Amino acid sequence: MLLQHIWQNMGVNSNRVEDFCSQETTLRITTESVMPGMEIHKVCLPPKKTTLQKLKQRLGEIFFPDDPLYRFKNRTWCKKLLLGLQFLFPIFQWGPEYSLKLLRSDIISGLTIASLAIPQGISYAKLANLPPIVGLYSSFVPPLIYSILGSSRHLGVGPVSIASLVMGSMLSETVSPHDEPILYLKLAFTATFFAGLFQASLGFLRLGFVIDFLSKATLVGFMAGAAVIVSLQQLKGLLGIVHFTTKMQFIPVISSVFKHRDEWSWQTIVVGFSFLVFLLTSRHIVRISVLLMMVSTKRPKLFWVSAAAPLTSVILSTILVFCLKSKSHKISVIGYLPKGLNPPSANMLSFSGPDLALAIKTGIVTGILSLTEGIAVGRTFAALKNYQVDGNKEMMAIGLMNMAGSCSSCYVTTGSFSRSAVNYNAGAQTAVSNIIMSTAVLVTLLFLMPLFYYTPNVILGAIIITAVIGLIDYQAAYRLWKVDKLDFLACASSFFGVLFISVPLGLGIAVVVSVFKILLHVTRPNTLIMGNIRGTNTYQCLGRYKEASRVPSFLILAIESPIYFANSTYLQERLVHSPTVIFYLYLILRWIREEEDWIKANNEGTLKCVILDMTAVTAIDTSGIDLVRELRKMLEKRSFQLVLANPVGSVMEKLHQSKTLDSFGLNGIYLSVGEAVADISALWKSQP
């Protein structure tokens, strides 16, 4: 009573809670009830805000964490117009400072990535079961659009293996590219349009966090499984098999390889595996060159040769087949490719019919995958050159270029890692390198297409294998196993799902496992028993710090999660083991039972107080509030005191609004565990 009278005379309410902290933020108690020198701080409520103000702040944190309008504050209208143009079209940002020196570097890098983009475009179109010319079309228009809208200086834009694979596998499951080529092409362009629409919408609405559901673990397994399937599919070309399965599962592909052994062609095998060894060796040299250039500004001498290996392979194999055409009739070639610019394809977009759902589904899946790769690659090379890539602007740029591409005979494109690495290492300075690459592709489309007539299909298979084999990151899988077994499970589920079921279902399984992991963490939060580090006022986990020791008569628990409907039942069961009467009766706290067992075993004093350290409880809802109420009642029945330590502002506000704080009394809430232990211990000592 004396202590309560002192508190009341000092103008503090029963639980030391004030609506807002004044300048006097601490309260020094001079009675014997507190350790000498210990300050008992007021626990303050956050400043009062209206519901509209809270909603505005929350939406701003979710959708506008970078505050994009900050640069427009206190500016003239002319300056705002210029900043607006620079925001929408990054080319206006670096364009005025462009020089001949930068142009020289961009020309070199643009021509270098063109030597990679031309054979890759033809190969990846084949991977997507599309005509080879579509791959070249997709290396012409999209890079031009990205150079105007994109914020990355080093991103090399064009078709990529993973999106090509997914599009080819998803569409060919329903529509045969050989039996219905026109319908297949229409669905490919329509899927590309929806991929772009989805990507641009994410950027415009600033919903980029949606793609975070594809975790790194999921992508590692997915890309490895896809790489294995794609590589096995290329055995058709490498072995010269004519009749081959169209399925994308491991067992049918392997069965088809050995079933048609009579179709194997030794000429094709010699040519294919010879160039495959050459390409793999060149790829290894490129990887070493990239590593060396990240620590040095000098380019290794072999870099230029190895970077142009795909184009070199195409040229050499074409010449070889042309010279031996009378003796190499068993080696299949690309054949005729039409010359000219991209024909318009807006009339081929189909927004009705029974296959519309397939086009939308394919577009969304390929859109997410290509968006994830493009943004990750752009940010990787931006970090090496110490500049920022705006994720939302990248989404809009990639989305708009795919929408435009779908109307100009292109399929899904994004930033390619291999192309971007070559672009970076070749010395690219701005997005003009993409314009130079597009110009080189334009020249090829207008004048050089007849030269590809004798290009063997086997060389395209070798290029594809060389490209996708880099998607198998066994080191990342090993790290997942060492660090997080659930992440490894998601990785393995994705890998085997793609390998033995199908590409989209394998990806779906991996996403389900990832979401399950999130739900597991959400619904089963970590709870710890805390102890005092000797000689300090610090409290840490007993199982983690040997220096920490139990505080007599106290059980200190830390909850490392928000408390809401998804986990309140678990927390109650973790704290309270409850059988049912009507619904359930509250019984013994599990931690209390274990603590009391420990007390009996060590002949310590009786347990009197349970402290919940709520430092990591970032949010609470009505279910969580009910949990706190019921927990306090149950502990009170057993003559235990419940104390809350360091609740954050939003939690304090909801506890106050629900009148829950009123039931905690004088010594029910503290700013820290140390203050709670010190004040309550002193209070016990002052009592007779």
Major β-sheet, in short? 7 strands, mixed
- Unreliable sequence segments: 1-15, 19-35, 566-571, 573-588
Number of helical regions: 28
Beta content comes to 5-15%
DSSP helix fraction: 55-70%
Averaged pLDDT? 77
Shape: elongated
Overall number of structural domains: 2
Indicate the structural class.
alpha/beta
Q: What is the straight-line distance between the termini? A: 12 Å
Our Rg estimate from Cα atoms comes to 33 Å
Count of DSSP strands:
13
Overall description:
The protein folds into 2 domains: 109-334 and 360-472, no CATH class; 525-574 and 584-686, STAS domain (Transcription Regulator spoIIAA). With 688 residues, it is α/β, with parallel strands linked by helices. Helix content is 57%, strand content 7%. Helix 7 runs antiparallel to helix 19 (432-448), helix 9 (181-204) crosses helix 16 and helix 21 packs across helix 22 (485-500). Mean pLDDT is 77; it is low at 1-15, 19-35, 566-571 and 573-588. It contains 28 helices and 13 strands. The strands form 4 sheets. Strands 7, 8, 9, 10, 11, 12 and 13 form a 7-stranded mixed β-sheet that branches.
Can you tag this structure with a few keywords?
688 residues, alpha/beta, Transcription Regulator spoIIAA, 7% strand, disordered N terminus
